[in-house]
Amino acid sequence: MTLGESDGALVSIAEAFDLPGRVRSLEPLGSGNVNESFVVVCDGPPVERFVLQRLNRRVFARPDLVMANMLALGEHVERRLAESGSPLGERRWDVPRVVRSRSDQRPWLEREGGFWRLITFVESARSFELVSSAEQAREVGIGLGLFHHLISDLSPERLADTLEGFHVTPRYLEHYDAVLAGAPAATGSDISHCRAFVEERRSFAPVLEEARASGRLRLRPIHGDPKVSNVMLEAGSGRAVALVDLDTVKPGLIHYDIGDCLRSCCNPLGEETADLEAVRFDVDLCRALLGGYLSAASGFLTAADYDHLFAAIRLISFELGLRFFTDHLAGDLYFRTERPDHNLQRALVQFRLTSSIEVQEPTILAMIDELRSGAAGAP
C-alpha cells in the first residue's frame, strides 16, 4: 500500500523503530506463505529502504527467540567477515541488520495485535521466483555455500530451536496421520493419488533423522528456508550477495537446506504451476547449483554428508508435498492460500517433482560422485 491508501497504522508501526528519517512510502513486499512483509522507504539523505515484517505467531510461538537467533547469527557473520573476509575473495556479502525500537531498544515491537520487526534492505540486489539459467543456479548454490561456510563455526547451542519438528519428516508424517484420522472423509482422484503417494514412501521418511540419531550426520546452524526467492543476486553482476528471511534460522541438518534449495531451484515451472505433466527435476540446474555450493562449502563437509545428498534431494520435495497435502486436509491453517484446493495443487506439484527425482536417481548419484571427486581434488 502507498501512504495515500493506508490508514496510517503500518506507518506508525514503522516509525516506532529507530529509522533515520520520515517514512516516505510503504508497500507490500514478496509473496511469502507465512509472514506479511512491506518495504519501507525513508527520507534521507540518503533515501534508505527497510523491510517491515509481521511474524506469524501461529507459526512462531516464541518470536522473541526468533529475533535472538537472528541477532546471534548476524553478529557472528559480521565478525567472520571483518576478520577474514569472504572465502571467495572480493565477493560482496551482506547480512540484513535488525533495527531496534525507539522506546526501549528491543529488536521488535508488539502493536496492533502483531509482533513486528524492521531490518535493513539489501540494496542493489533482487530475488527471483524461478531460476532462468545454469549460471543463475550456480550463484544460488554459491550463496547457500557462503552462508553455511560463514556459520559453520557458530555453535548450534547458541541458537534456540524456534520451530521444533521443522524439517523433521517423521513428525510431519505423524501430524498427517492425526489430521487424516480427524478430517471429514475427502474424496476425489487427486486426494486418492496423494494418499497413495504418501503411503508408498512412508518407510523413507526417517532417512535423515535416522542418520542424525546414529551420529552419521550432526546438527549445525541452518537457514531453514533457502528457497530461490530468499537468495539475493546483485544487480548487474548477478552474484549472490545475501540470504534473507532469517526467521527460520535454527539448529538442524544442512541437508534440509541443501534439499530445499535444490527443490526450489531445479523445478523450472515453480511450485505454483498448474501444468503437472510438465513438472520435472532439472539435473543440469542441480549440477550447477551443487557445483557452486561445493566451491564455497566443501571444506567442512564430511563423507557422510556427501552420502546423504541424494536422500536430501528426494526427501525435502516429498516433505513439502506432505505438508501442503496435510494443510489442505486440515482446512488451510498454515500456508496462506488464494483459492480453494490451492494447497492440494501445491502438493501435487511437489509429489510430481519427487517422482521426477526418483526416476533420475542413477543420473543424480553419478553427478554427485563426479562433483564430490572434483571437490576432493580442488586445491
From TrEMBL:
Pfam families: APH
Matches recorded under SUPFAM superfamilies: Protein kinase-like (PK-like) (SSF56112)
Organism whose genome encodes this protein: Cyanobium gracile UHCC 0139
Protein name as catalogued: Phosphotransferase
Domain of life: Bacteria
Domain Aminoglycoside phosphotransferase: residue ranges: 26-275
